[in-house]
Write a structure and sequence with these properties.
The chain is α+β, with helices and mostly antiparallel strands and 766 residues long. The protein contains 21 helices and 30 strands. The N and C termini lie far apart (69 Å). 56% of the residues are buried. The N terminus is likely disordered. The protein binds dioxosulfidomolybdenum(VI) ion. The site of dioxosulfidomolybdenum(VI) ion has 11 residues, from loops.
Length: 766
């Protein structure tokens, strides 16, 4: 049996409409839910009158904050395994899963209506009468931290929920004092909406005292444990079910208050309850990403060597610190705070502020694109101010290929150690492939047409992996000769069905077609592990899978020796069979592994756990853009991404990951921006006001690999899920600024939309 196509194994199913997403699950007797959401950014709830809604046609139940509070279903607690400045612990204010006394952002769920049809639930939700007393709201992070700002939570003084510090302030100060040159930049990485194709959706039912939840997930154990945090249920009483997931990007990792409310509704009604968010609800209730104000400073000596770097960030957390929001605002960027450079001194301080907006969590890159952006904008700015060639300044400061393992000067037990890489090699390859040397000629040609042209580079290294202590996988054999690989990381489009069987096939010497992936099966083996985030599936679950497969071969040798009546030392394993060396006497693995008649499991079934891996993917991305000064429109002309994601398991899947990451990065660079007005109303609440990247934006992209294996895991992989996003923010914005600088533009924040670029050009020429 072999594949009739060269793409991904899941594509035939997904492209012919045979995928099964949350909305596709239907249970007998299921009811439908609709949420009433706050239209105030900040208000006291004086009363909630559900009488009219309860009388509406088809309505079965109406739940409010009082119901959620009565059973203790809440928002869940974000947690951090470390303290902040002066020993500060993360402050995690709590509230019921449905708002009770106060609403704190537009979109905050206030009531849940359950009815026989979705339309009836929606109609009745509009009959729930909420009396609000509006409170002053704050939607801007700097305003939230200012004296006299409206206070969101009584137990979070000054709206500062965490104050994080890393590095050595005194050492950095001394280096800055001695420096020949200092550059400083104030930058933003504005709030964006994850917008997976599949909106948030769930179907909840109770099987006795066990909650079953069908929903989009990046890993069922991760989501289950998160939901336990919201509901207080023990893990044994929650089963998360999913097959296909239409995009994750970080925001499908955690459980949401809606999940808890639906669980309560299913309990109250005794029926399965289903809910599918509208796209508007995606904007108003999926946790958002980014939301950063960043001040960066770089100190250089007279020759251009980097002496020290400082970062001061203010990180918006929205109305509640949730899920991995606090982690990705602190440790993730700190683990790459010197970029790919040798910088002896570093100091950073990140203040996490609460605002009357949707909470923030991990979104593709999760703090990494922002730090790469901060470092690489600083390096370009230094080159411009000091008159250095941008590539030469980088080559002078990049860590050399023999620098590894390299521990960052951040100090403490959390200091990152870069595993391996060749950053100068990445830069050289990208510059060559992008014909950096020929750029000035292209710029001149463009100028002849009245346009502006710019080229930019982003060299980056980022942390991947980690998150949970260990990841467990299993390989089992069925009576028909099929091989199954089991794990709890969940594909949201990455191609796990293709690559996990390939890993097993590679070790066992079998046709991948005989191997199938069973991901996140709550009825199957009780496996532990993290999900598909932090670019971690291959370096954690993938590596564990390879180890498990090797273990299968090793265990099979004893069975083969018995079956062949030979010494194990005389037997070799090749292409799925054990053979006595030099003879034609052999037995296949599948024969040995088959469960005996009447047995559930086979003698070679194997479960293996590995400590969660950590690695440091790196890359050099070059972007070239053309700007029309008449309209401000920016068009990507070429884009070269050279990536070191470690050993490449499947080139098609790697390309898909990098390309998708670049698309999301360029989306933020050129258009995506989540805008709140001062009072906390979301102005960009639909695709009419929120510019998603489109195919036209992605022309001329070249993807190249330059792998250096990671010594940190048995496969040598580093992770690829976020590299495209991390590289594209600095590369593309440096290109835009390179195009605009000759016209006098010094400062420009993402998104480099036509309107902003046009305004910046106007302001510069005024
Ligand atoms: S943004 Mo990711 O799922 O670490």
């Amino acid at each position: 049996m072999s594949y009739p196509y060269f793409g991904r194994r899941e594509d035939a199913r997904l492209l012919t409409g045979a995928g099964r997403y949350t909305a596709d699950w239907t249970l007998p007797g299921q009811l439908h839910a609709a949420f009433l959401r706050s239209d105030h950014a900040h208000a006291r709830i004086l009363s909630v009158n559900t009488a009219a809604a309860r009388e509406a046609p088809g309505v079965v139940a109406v739940l409010t904050g009082a119901d959620a509070a009565a059973v203790g279903y809440g928002r869940g607690k974000a947690a951090l395994p470390y303290k902040g400045r002066d020993g500060m612990a993360l402050l995690t204010p709590q509230a019921p899963a449905l708002a009770q006394d106060r609403v704190r952002y537009v979109g905050d769920p206030v009531a849940l209506v359950v009815a026989e049809t979705p339309a009836q639930a929606q109609d009745a939700a509009e009959l729930v009468m909420v009396e609000y007393e509006a409170l002053p709201a704050v939607s801007d992070v700097d305003a939230a931290l200012a004296d006299g700002a409206p206070q969101l939570h009584p137990d979070v003084p000054g709206n500062l929920c965490f104050d994080y510090e890393y590095g050595d302030a005194a050492a950095a100060e001394a280096a800055f004092a001695d420096a020949a040159h200092v550059v400083q930049l104030d930058l933003t990485s504005d709030r964006v909406v994850g917008n997976p194709m599949e909106p948030k959706a769930a179907l909840a039912r109770w099987d006795g005292d066990v909650l079953e939840l069908w929903t989009a997930t990046q890993g069922m154990v991760a989501l289950r444990d998160s939901l336990c945090g919201l509901t207080g249920l023990p893990p044994g009483q929650v089963r998360v079910r999913a097959q296909d997931v239409g995009g994750g990007f970080g925001i499908r990792g955690p459980a949401y208050p809606e999940h808890a409310a639906l669980a309560l509704a299913a309990k109250r009604t005794g029926s399965p309850v289903k809910w599918i968010a509208t796209r508007s609800e995606t904007f108003l209730s999926d946790y958002h990403g980014r939301g950063l104000r960043m001040r960066g400073e770089l100190a250089l000596d007279a020759a251009g060597r980097f002496l020290a770097i400082r970062h001061q960030w203010v990180c918006d957390q929205g109305a509640y610190p949730v899920a991995t929001g606090p982690l990705i605002s602190t440790l993730n960027p700190a683990m790459m705070c010197t970029g790919p450079y040798r910088i002896p001194a570093v100091h950073g301080r990140h203040r996490l502020a609460l605002t009357n907006t949707v909470p923030i969590t991990a979104y593709r890159g999760a703090g990494r694109p922002d730090m790469a952006y901060a470092v690489e904008r600083l390096v370009d700015e230094a080159a411009r101010q000091l008159g250095h060639d941008r590539l030469a300044l980088r080559r002078l400061n990049l860590l050399p290929a023999d620098a590894f393992p390299y521990t960052l000067p951040t100090g403490g037990p959390m200091a990152a150690t870069y595993d391996s890489g060749d950053y100068p090699g990445l830069l050289d390859m990208a510059a060559e492939a992008a014909d950096w040397a020929g750029f000035e000629a292209r710029r001149a040609e463009t100028a002849g047409r009245g346009k502006l042209r710019g080229i930019g580079v982003g060299v980056f290294v980022e942390p991947s992996g980690g998150v949970v202590p260990r990841d467990e996988v299993a390989i089992t054999f069925d009576a028909e000769g099929g091989v199954r690989v089991h794990n709890v990381t969940h594909s949201s489009g990455q191609g796990h069905e293709t690559v996990f069987p390939e890993i097993v096939a590679g070790v066992l010497g079998l046709d991948p077609a005989s191997i199938t992936l069973h991901q996140g099966d709550p009825d199957g083996l009780p496996l532990f592990g993290g999900g598909a985030f932090a670019s971690r599936s291959m370096l954690s679950h993938g590596a564990a899978t390879a180890v498990a497969a090797r273990e299968v071969v090793r265990k099979g040798l004893d069975l083969a020796a018995d079956a062949l009546e030979a010494a194990a030392a005389d037997i070799e394993y090749q292409a799925g069979a054990y053979r006595i060396v030099g003879t034609d006497r052999s037995v296949t693995l599948v024969e040995l592994a088959r469960p005996a008649e009447g047995q559930e499991s086979g003698p070679l079934d194997t479960t293996t756990a590995l400590p969660a891996g950590r690695a440091f993917p790196s890359g050099a991305h070059v972007a070239e853009v053309e700007v029309d000064p008449e309209t401000g429109e920016v068009a990507l002309q070429r884009y070269v991404a050279v990536d070191d994601c470690g050993v490449v398991l499947n080139h098609t899947l790697l390309d898909g990951q990098i390309m998708g990451g670049i698309a999301q990065g360029l989306g933020q660079v050129f258009g995506e921006q989540c805008v709140y007005d001062e009072g906390g109303q979301l102005l960009s609440g639909s695709f009419m006001d929120y510019a998603m990247p489109h195919a036209e934006m992605l022309r001329g992209i070249t993807l190249m690999e330059r792998p250096v294996p990671s010594p940190n895991n048995p496969l040598g992989v580093k992770g690829a899920g976020e590299a495209g996003t991390t590289g594209s923010l600095p590369a593309a914005m440096n290109a835009v600024l390179d195009a605009l600088r000759p016209a006098g533009v010094r400062r420009l924040d993402m998104p480099a939309s036509a309107q902003r670029v046009w305004a910046a050009l106007r302001a510069a020429s005024a």
